[in-house]
Every structure is written in C-alpha cells, then in structure tokens.
Amino acid sequence: MTEEPYRWLEAVANRREYVRDQLRGGSPAFAASLPEGILLLGVGGGQTKVFELFDRQALAGLGHPADIERIRQAAIDAAHTEAFTRAPEDVSLRRLVSFGLSPQLKTNFEQIFTAPFLIELLLAELGTAPANDSLIRLHFDGGFRQQHGGVMVVASQSETEAAAQAWLSRETAGLTQRAAVAELFLQAWWLLVENKPFGEALPPEAERRAGWRAAVLEKDRVVEIGWLARAGTRTARYEAVDRAGLGL
Amino acid sequence: MNAAPRMAGDFLSLLTAQKLAPLAAPSTNAPTETQATTVFAFHYADGVLMAGDRRATAGNLIVTDRVDKVLEIDATSLLAIAGVPATAFEMARVLQTSFEYYRRSQLQPLSLPAKVRAIARLLRENLPMTMQGVGVVVPLFAALDQSVTPAKPQIYFYDPLGAQFQAVGHVASGSGSGTIRSIMSFQEQYGTPPPSRMSLPEAVRFALRLLMVASEFDSATGGVNPANRSFATIKLLGPTGVSTVGDEQQAEWLAL
Questions:
Q1: Exposure check for chain B: N or C terminus, fewer CB within 10 A?
Q2: Contacts of A85 in chain B (CB under 8 A)
Q3: CA distance to A115, A131, B89, B226, per residue, from B72 (Å)
C-alpha cells in the first residue's frame, strides 16, 4: 500500500514521456497579434490545423486528429452555450480555458488508466487592440500560459518552441503586414521541422525561403491560414485565407 | 438505458442535453403583447432586398419606432419578423446560434433546405403559443442557394403553423402587408421597370415609398419620415452575402 503513491508518480512521469514521444514530429503552428487582426498559420499534411471556435476565438495545434477534434468540439459547445444563455460578448478565452478545457485536460492526464490526449494547442482571442488580444498556449496536461499580443508558437518540443518564439518575436517586431508575418512563420516552420538552429548557425534568408516552399510543394502539404479581423460589421470575425491570397 | 444520440452539429440537441429549452410556453394570463408589423422582400436586379418598418405596438400604443425587424442570421441569411417580437427575437437568436454552431462544428455551412426547415421547426414548436394567440410569428426568410454557381438568393415565407413556401418575385408579412402586396403585384405586372429589374437605388427608393404608403393605411406601420431622420431597416442579399443600406444612403436615394 505504501508504495502506491510512488507507482502513481512513476506512471504519470511515464505518461508524460509517452505523450511527448507521440507528439514528436508534429507540425508546428503559429499566431501573431497584428494591428488589423490576429494571424494563425499551420501546415497540414491532410489534417486540418487551424479552426474557428467562436466570433472572435480561434484554435491551432498539433497532435492526434481525433484528440484535437474532441477538444475543438468541447470548446465550440461551451462557447455557443455561453453565448446563447448569456451573450456572445460573454464568451472569453480565459474562462473557456481556465474553467473548461484546462481542468478537463488535467483530469484526463492524471487518470492513468485512460488514454491521454495527444495534443499541444494554441488559442487566440481578438480584442479591441493588439494589447487586448489574448494568446493562450495550452498543453496536453492542462497547463497553460496566457499572453496579450505578440507572437506565439506551438511545437512538440519545448526548447525549440521557445527558440522559434524568441526568433519570431525579434523578426516580426514592427511588422504590420500579415503576408510578411506569414512568410516568417513559414520560415520558422521549416526550421523547426528540419531541426535547423535558430541561433548563430541560422540558415540565410534565401535558404529559409526556398526551404519551406520545397517542403510544402514537394510533399503536397497544405498551408492553412486563419485571420481574425479586427475591423468589420459582422460579429463572426474569422476567415480562412489561402496562400495565394497572401501572395505566398 | 442510453439516451438517443445527439445529432451532429445540432444546437437544439445541445440545448436539450443541457436542459436549456428555448421558447418555453408562457402563462395563458399573458399581458397585451408587443407586436411588430410590416416587412417585405423582393428580387431586384442584383439580388434580394428585404425591408421593414421600425414600429412596435401594443394594442393602440406605439411602444417604439426604433425596432430592427430585418435580422442578419448569418453571412448569407436574413430573417424578417412579423408578429410578437418577444418570440420572434428569440427565434432569431436560436437560428443565429444554430447556423453558426453547425458551420463551426461541422466545418461546412448548413444547406439552404436545412435552414428553411429549421425555421419551420421553430414555428411548429411555437404552436401552443400561436394557438393561444399570445406568440404568433409569421417570418420571411431569404438565403443564398449555394448549390448553384453563382450562388442565388431565394425568398421563403411561412404560415404561423410552420408551412414553408418559396416566393417567386415578392412577399410581405404583417398588418401592412396587404397594401404592400397590392402595390408590388401592380408594379411587377405594369410598372417600368418591374421590381425584378430595378437597380439598387431604384429598389431602395421603391421599398421606402412602399412603407410610406403602407403607413397611410395602417397605424401599426411606422413608415418613413426623412424630416425627422426616420428610415427603414433595409438589408440586401447578393451572391456574395448580406449587406446593409444605412440611413444616409436611404436618404440620398429617396431624394433622387
């Protein structure tokens, strides 16, 4: 009996290792808060990576398609029920994640006899200005981190994710055009999937540009771009944009 | 025993599962209800124009002259409400949430026939209130048929029990609808141009004049009065979706 807690701790640690191993090689996704809206981008190999959740909320991520779908559906159910019983303005990403998705993911992760969620997610909420935008990084174990504005990356490995986010934050500083930011996202995506360094040995820009194009075109991948527009008369602000629409 | 499985993407099933019933029947001892009146829609050269006056009445009282009775349900659907606003606005809210819920959860828009039937279903569920005379709603609906290229705007109307009909050229609902229908029918047969060939400025001017005439014969129709900046709610449905004709634009085209 006395060793049961230790077995549980070991099981959770094994479970964490298992999930990280399963997620290895997942295709990263990105989001950036810009003056005119929030840009989300992912590169899929047949599965959808970027989704609309509600009027001003969207999701991007990597992982098992069935698990992403379960979380996406739970978020959509909760958002629409909240909007109907209160008002669309009451749907907030902070509440959705901290009171809904995060506890569910944590409970599931710690129930060691059930299958864990194989996901890493990024959620975005449009505010009235970039400083009011919310970007939330949600992990498979329910842990999450929220930031207002800026750039956010979701990748399978935390070290490379942090390196990519630091590089993108520097490179996108001052950029306002979504096409220019999307180009940098795709370069960062190529660096991540090819396991290239973001530091001093960073490949030159020409190589990065050619690299992502070759990786997308030769392997028949699809670049998915979501845009949450700050200006507009309609309540639903999300639109899917294709690569050609941004001149990429 | 397991409950029946929830229909994928069906928001009403989600509400039922969470024991949140919209449009619950009220007491039969209801007070005099607020009502809304004249709305209409017709095909013009570039799509469908849907318009409504902005008056709500309760018996012989004017409650307000600032009601919007033409509502955007989603990017390609419009609903015009005639009848009891309390029920009609709730129906519109259910439809707005249902259509968007389906589109987001199923990653495809609801088809036009399904949208048309969703309204019929709400009207049938409202039957007890309709039979009690305290919740009658007779809406008009316009939406894009996206099964053809280019997408084609269509108009539908309903009876209070939920029967659905497609309008060929024009349709009207509410207490001022008799006047509107007569003028539109005359204009379609003998007018130059007929409504179906009108340009947008011509169609907007025609719609505003229809409401001005209807308000002369029906006290529950608010009409249009440029002198005190009182205009109509006018929305358009074209191949690319819904747009609104604001007060400034209405004033300009009415003065042409």
A1: N
A2: 20
A3: 43, 30, 12, 25
Q: Binning pLDDT at 50, 70 and 90, where does residue A247 land? A: confident
Residue A232 lies in a domain: yes
Looking at CA atoms only, how far is residue B8 from chain A in angstroms? 10
Residue A194 lies in a domain: no
Please answer yes or no on whether B72 and A77 come within 8 Å at the CB atom. Answer: no
Q: Does B15 touch chain A (CB under 8 A)?
A: yes
Domain that holds residue A11: 4-156+221-242
| Structure ipTM | 0.93
Rounded distance, CA B41 to CA B52, Å?
9
Whole-angstrom distance, CA of residue B219 vs CA of residue B146: 39
Question: CB within 8 A of A211, min separation 6: which ones?
Answer: A187, A190, A191, A194, A203
Residue A169 lies in a domain: no
| Cα B116 to chain centroid, rounded | 12
The CATH number given to whatever domain includes residue A76 is: 3.60.20.10
Contact B104 A48 (CB under 8 A): no
Whether A57 maps to a domain, the answer reads: yes
- List the beta strands (DSSP E) in A35-180: 37-44, 50-54, 57-63, 119-125, 134-138, 144-148, 151-154
Asked whether A71 and A119 are in contact (CB, 8 A), the reply is yes
Task: Quick: pLDDT tens for A43-98.
Answer: 988 778 999 999 999 999 999 999 999 999 999 999 999 999 999 999 999 999 99
Domains in chain B, CATH or no CATH each:
34-254 (3.60.20.10)
Q: Which of B245, B178, B150, B161 is nearest to B205 (CA)?
A: B245
Closest residue on chain B to A58 (Cα)? B104
Instruction: Render the burial of B149-164: b for 16+ CB within 10 Å, e for the rest.
Output: eebebbbbbbebebee
Residue of A54, A57, A68, A80 to mutate, interface with B, max B Cβ within 10 Å: A80
Q: For residues B173 and B80, is the Cβ–Cβ distance under 8 A?
A: yes
Q: Count the residues in chain A.
A: 248
Buried b (16+ CB within 10 A) or exposed e, A75-84: bbbbbbbbbb
Question: Residue A96: which of A65, A55, A62 has the closest Cα?
Answer: A55
B18 vs A81: CB contact, 8 Å cut-off?
yes
How many domains is chain A partitioned into structurally? 1
Which one is predicted more confidently, B23 or B28? B23
Q: Is B6 on the interface with A (CB under 8 A)?
A: no
